[in-house]
Amino acid sequence: MHIHILGICGTFMGSMAVLAKELGHHVTGSDANVYPPMSTQLQAQGIELTQGYDPSQFDPVPDLVVIGNAMSRGNPAVEYVLNKGLPYVSGPQWLSDHVLQGRWVLAVAGTHGKTTTSSMLAWVLEHAGMSPGFLIGGVPQNFSVSARLGDTPFFVIEADEYDSAFFDKRSKFVHYRPRTAILNNLEFDHADIFPDLPAIERQFHHLVRTIPSEGLVIYPTTEPALQRVIDMGCWTPVQTTGAGGQWQVKLLSEDGSKFEVLFEGVAQGVVEWDMTGQHNVANALVTLAAARHVGVVPSMGIDALSAFKSVKRRMEKVADVNGITIYDDFAHHPTAIATTLDGLRKRVGDAPIIAIVEPRSNSMKLGAHRDGLPESVNDADQVVWYAPANLGWDLPGVAALCTVPSKVCDSIDGIIEFVKHQAKPGTHVVVMSNGGFGGLHGKLAEALK
């Protein structure tokens, strides 16, 4: 079957394309912005990409069009599909019908940490010899591909609360019907489609309603929004992590790189790894709980985590130039920015940290997170804010509220010039964006040489 995917370079759609190819379909696709890591992964898989949405891409006519949730009415390709009556479907629906049917689905939902936690869980199952399938919204470095079908009934999926398509406004995750569900955390996000936090909580409860009574729901005790979701009604056994939960940790190093795991008060072993930050310790706990549900004993899960290599673009060290270290990080929410910088600060001590932040997500562009931004960068020594031309709120005003030195730049070149003068050997530069950021990482590394 010839499947054509509109919006193929999104992390979800790109991963779905890999699975469709593995199932033996002829897969093509298009996107407005074709950029790595997804574009390089797709090309390596032999998937033909078209830049833009000109209807000429439907020659020859595909058997099925999968429409990504970034596509809206008025898009020339979408209008062509509707006018010609071509068969179309949303990505989550296609996945549910053709990949997840009849499998033991382990879903990872939450505002933060979905990609990292899904990657951890897939790796723990792989390490235990369970050869799971997975679909992850990033490229886990233990696998070097973001999706595969796997050889067993187990399938790990990053379960996003964002909507499915312009014709299906339900959250993607209601299509997945997991047996094991991790609810990682819950804060307000996606201001372009949700009016407030209670609206997101309702979607999470739709997910909870689909989990069988023989399944398992795992969530941290520290998240009041998740407790409210569970209190709306839960028909499934639960396990909790963190303070007062069944799964707890004893930190053995302040930066989170070494900790002991306890289950129901009994020590299970020590994780020693390259990751930092309390958020990753929390991710590890829910991972071990989910893995245990499918038969991986905690001691084996702990061994696997000690060999975990994280995900591309999650505090990924991309360059070391004249003693200056550059990291690429996907953080695009104040909480994620703060926890990432906190983990780095605890690891590097007093070494200078420069944070470069692009407010690129839809919620950022709408200004939904601006009140939390000044405090989110407290662990940096210097922050550079990138002001794109279409930002509809006062970024300099937010920068002025920062307690650390703050600069606003309206060009990539301006950022590079500034960092060149600021950074000295021993400096750590963290570039935070959920997009390609105009290739800033590579250009900065070049300029620092």
UniProtKB/TrEMBL annotation:
<dbReference type="InterPro" id="IPR013221">
    <property type="entry name" value="Mur_ligase_cen"/>
</dbReference>
<keyword id="KW-0131">Cell cycle</keyword>
<dbReference type="GO" id="GO:0008360">
    <property type="term" value="P:regulation of cell shape"/>
</dbReference>
<feature type="domain" description="Mur ligase C-terminal">
    <location>
        <begin position="313"/>
        <end position="435"/>
    </location>
</feature>
<dbReference type="InterPro" id="IPR036565">
    <property type="entry name" value="Mur-like_cat_sf"/>
</dbReference>
<dbReference type="InterPro" id="IPR004101">
    <property type="entry name" value="Mur_ligase_C"/>
</dbReference>
<feature type="domain" description="Mur ligase central">
    <location>
        <begin position="108"/>
        <end position="291"/>
    </location>
</feature>
<dbReference type="InterPro" id="IPR000713">
    <property type="entry name" value="Mur_ligase_N"/>
</dbReference>
<keyword id="KW-0436">Ligase</keyword>
<dbReference type="Pfam" id="PF02875">
    <property type="entry name" value="Mur_ligase_C"/>
</dbReference>
<keyword id="KW-0067">ATP-binding</keyword>
<dbReference type="GO" id="GO:0051301">
    <property type="term" value="P:cell division"/>
</dbReference>
<dbReference type="Pfam" id="PF01225">
    <property type="entry name" value="Mur_ligase"/>
</dbReference>
<keyword id="KW-0132">Cell division</keyword>
<feature type="binding site">
    <location>
        <begin position="110"/>
        <end position="116"/>
    </location>
    <ligand>
        <name>ATP</name>
    </ligand>
</feature>
<comment type="function">
    <text>Reutilizes the intact tripeptide L-alanyl-gamma-D-glutamyl-meso-diaminopimelate by linking it to UDP-N-acetylmuramate.</text>
</comment>
<keyword id="KW-0573">Peptidoglycan synthesis</keyword>
<keyword id="KW-0460">Magnesium</keyword>
<dbReference type="InterPro" id="IPR050061">
    <property type="entry name" value="MurCDEF_pg_biosynth"/>
</dbReference>
<dbReference type="Pfam" id="PF08245">
    <property type="entry name" value="Mur_ligase_M"/>
</dbReference>
<keyword id="KW-0133">Cell shape</keyword>
<feature type="domain" description="Mur ligase N-terminal catalytic">
    <location>
        <begin position="2"/>
        <end position="99"/>
    </location>
</feature>
<dbReference type="InterPro" id="IPR005757">
    <property type="entry name" value="Mpl"/>
</dbReference>
<dbReference type="GO" id="GO:0071555">
    <property type="term" value="P:cell wall organization"/>
</dbReference>
<protein>
    <recommendedName>
        <fullName>UDP-N-acetylmuramate--L-alanyl-gamma-D-glutamyl-meso-2,6-diaminoheptandioate ligase</fullName>
        <ecNumber>6.3.2.45</ecNumber>
    </recommendedName>
</protein>
<comment type="pathway">
    <text>Cell wall biogenesis; peptidoglycan recycling.</text>
</comment>
<keyword id="KW-0961">Cell wall biogenesis/degradation</keyword>
<dbReference type="InterPro" id="IPR036615">
    <property type="entry name" value="Mur_ligase_C_dom_sf"/>
</dbReference>
<keyword id="KW-0547">Nucleotide-binding</keyword>
<dbReference type="GO" id="GO:0009254">
    <property type="term" value="P:peptidoglycan turnover"/>
</dbReference>
<dbReference type="GO" id="GO:0106418">
    <property type="term" value="F:UDP-N-acetylmuramate-L-alanyl-gamma-D-glutamyl-meso-2,6-diaminoheptanedioate ligase activity"/>
</dbReference>
<comment type="similarity">
    <text>Belongs to the MurCDEF family. Mpl subfamily.</text>
</comment>
<dbReference type="GO" id="GO:0005524">
    <property type="term" value="F:ATP binding"/>
</dbReference>
<dbReference type="GO" id="GO:0009252">
    <property type="term" value="P:peptidoglycan biosynthetic process"/>
</dbReference>
